[in-house]
Amino acid sequence: MGIAAPRRDELAHLLAQPEESIDLGRAALLVARDHDPRCDVDEGLARLDRLADPLRGVLRAETPVLEAALTLAAHLGARERFRGNVEQYDDPANSFLHAVLERRLGIPITLSLVYMEVARRCNVAAHGVGLPGHFLTGLSGPVPGADGSTRTGVVMLDPFDGGRLMRPRAVADLYARYVGSDATLPPDVLRPVSRKALLARMLRNLKGVYAKAGDTLRTLSVLDRILSLAPGALEERRERGLLLAQAGAARAARDDLETYLANANDVEHAAEARAVLAGLSHRRPTLLN
Q: What is the extent of the structural domain holding 23?
């Protein structure tokens, strides 16, 4: 799988818009196109439209949220067979929305994105829920009361597990599995994840896959994207500086490491960054600078 020629202006323009105006599906497809030239953004959006077509008119904004959640899970999980790629979790394609739509396989965050985009096309409010180590889809909507009143409630689904309905106890148990058996679920963990934060988390997953494989070029490309979304992300600033130093791009590495050290509080990582920065000062310039 090659790397496409950079076509960053379209995504940069999209991400510069106000949060509520960002087309999450299109943004995710543009991210994928950075790394897979076979990604057809318009076809990816059309696939999402076709997935939503059977639910249009069935699901509406006024549909009780539990009914909407079960209907969405039955359609995407049972009928369309979207599921987690347990066997090849580290496959980069799991982070590419067009590949997830083609193969019906993905990781929690990209599968959640499919659920969210299909729900949105049916006027059902949906958002991401970023647990440590896992990602869920939250649907918001009316909850009818026995007395005829209506309140707004949230129902959680796990798209990685075929759209399994996640009761509050199940969400708490999932959190404890990743954080520690005696951990209590903090309320702020369940807050909706913003579109930009979701894209950044998706990119961090992809960064981890490429870094684990030792693919420096692709890791740097993903780090560039993360820092365009979150310029203040110090961990990624440090990582990019270290990789640039290894690649011989001393000037660019120095800029990143100096920015990191001016703001960092992590003593251990700061010491490593200072050591690399000191080494750069004695290195002769290269064409990569």
A: 8-190
